[in-house]
Amino acid sequence: MTTKPLLEISQLQMHFFTDKGVVRAVDGIDLTVNEGEVVGLVGESGCGKSVTSLSIMGLVPSPPGKIVGGSIKFAGRELTTMSKKELRKIRGNEISMIFQEPMTSLNPVFTIGNQMVEAIRLHTDMSKKEAQERARDMLNKVGIARADILTAYPHELSGGMRQRVMIAMAMSLGPRLLIADEPTTALDVTIQAQILDLMRTLNQESQTAILLITHDLGVVAEMCDRVVVMYAGQVVEETDNRSLFRNSHHPYTQGLLKSIPKLSKQRSKRLYSIKGNVPNPRNMPQGCRFAPRCDFAMDICHQKMPDLVEVAPGHQTRCWLHVKGEGEVDLGSSRSTTQCS
Amino acid sequence: MIAYTIRRLLMLIPVLIGMSIITFSIIHALPGDPARAVLGERASAEQIAEVRESMGLDKPIYVQYFNYIGKLLQGDLGRSYITGREIAPELFTYLMATFELAIAAMLIAVFFGVNLGILSAWRQNSWVDYSAMMIALIGVSMPVFWLGLMEQWLFAQELGWLPSSSRLDARTMFEPITGLYVIDSIITGNWAVLGDAIRHLILPAVALGTIPMAIIARMTRSSMLEVMRSDYIRTARAKGLSEFWVIYKHTLKNAFIPVLTVVGLQTGILLGGAVLTETIFSWPGIGRYLYDAITSRDYQIIQSGILVVATIFVLINLIVDLLYAMIDPRIKYGRE
Ligand SMILES: Nc1ncnc2c1ncn2[C@@H]1O[C@H](COP(=O)(O)OP(=O)(O)OP(=O)(O)O)[C@@H](O)[C@H]1O
Ligand SMILES: [Mg+2]
Fold it and tell me: Would you say the CB of residue A18 lies under 6 angstroms from ligand 1?
């Protein structure tokens, strides 16, 4: 596998300016996806996973959303300053996206064929016939062999089928990056496995890199090469698949791992859950954002935000426990992302 | 689609029968003797008996009804006892004049209403949105007669740009075919008449179309805003489609479904409301025809006119339902 970076997000800040105040949905994120790699983006509901992915696509509703800082580079090109027209050429073509809600992600009043052909013809100069051929090929690849699929309307298909259509549509132009925002959350377990299998096959066959957003660590274990853990708009840990499960450093990541239900455990034992709730995004804690819920919180944790530091090659974490000379402020290496709020 | 259309057409039959019974009984529900109503208070007994016979009033009521229906099916609406003329051809001419006016008004209303609504939704909460909605608010609150009179004063009297009454210039000679002058002049390639007909149409059509335009604009705006938030619009954008296609293809087709209901309702209301506009602009339409019939108590005409107008309402409803099925694939396949 090459390690050429395809997508490089650095210090991205994406805020929502609402009537009730500023929501710092994404607050200084760094994230890299290399060519052909599968990267997992995990975290609790509301931590900013979807907003991050929509920012890459330039699809955050604006207003109220606005990128206020940082950069998103795709294959060397800066996306945040690109004109809308140029961005549209990349969208759906080089970067494509599938969403969490297969039931509502297809337009109910157009046929599957119409919606697929439209995307193909937009980015190529294929004739209608050729585009239909391509659409049919892609649908075959994702396991839909129905002869009349191109003339079917979304309401005639099941959720799993619709998600397959979405994948076929997203893959029909051979994108270099596929962003999948919780692609299986709304589907039942067997369909879920099929869809994940399909995505893995596509990744291996066509070397499409995948940014897989999920809150299911089981899915991460199955699919991902590397994992980025988000908490309250920030990256708190980043590592490869193996060390995530064997050697995670951040108490939040450890908490997430402990919350996975295990079949072998006695049934009577209550499932572990991280105490407390995600902080209100309009009123973030001053120090480490996880501190109020952390079992190991020290004084410094409540006062100052830790930086993301490398604890091993390719393994970074944002936690005072892992800063040199534990618990002391190491001003020397401060690449501060702290903001006064 | 064809099966659905046939089913819907069959469902019309009982409705039409019901309507014919109601209009038939109008004459019979009147207090006193229709023959006397026709002849006036001072008619002699013989005269009345004669008229009763000629009206078929001496026969049993169900025989009268079937006679009435039988003639109706042949397009025979009888004669007016007051003018002595055949009603059907006369009614047809007036009806077509109203159609032409109503269609023009509705085209204006839909075109401007829908685009104003789209513009508003697209630039929600901007000055564009506020001005468009201000126009819509003024539009709904403006009385038709006042707007009509202002138009006449400004564009006909002061500026002299457009004629203020009737369908054609008095000097224009023209033999109508369908009775829709715009269509007729196109069929016959008579461009001078086409221009004249359109010039005469503009002012009354704008007067009549303004309220529906405003209502359609508001409906389109709210419907567009709702659809724009949906997941499939996000998908459309994620494909890289331009804003124009996202709005005019993906959003509008969905947003148009509730707008269509309003268009249907407004078309009905517009036909009813045409009488004011027709009076102000001396437009020889069905509204004025019926108005005159009511003032002269021409029950024969009133009866036929009501039946025809009611049938048109029902047909508009049918057309709207068929359009629904065309736009929204989920309807067609619905179980009976
Ligand atoms: N249009 C918006 N206006 C204001 N705030 C928003 C908007 N969209 C998202 N947010 C806020 O941004 C934050 C991140 O939301 P996001 O949808 O990215 O979460 P997520 O990690 O994808 O969660 P989930 O797992 O539930 O999908 C949330 O606090 C949310 O309230
Ligand atoms: Mg999400």
Answer: yes
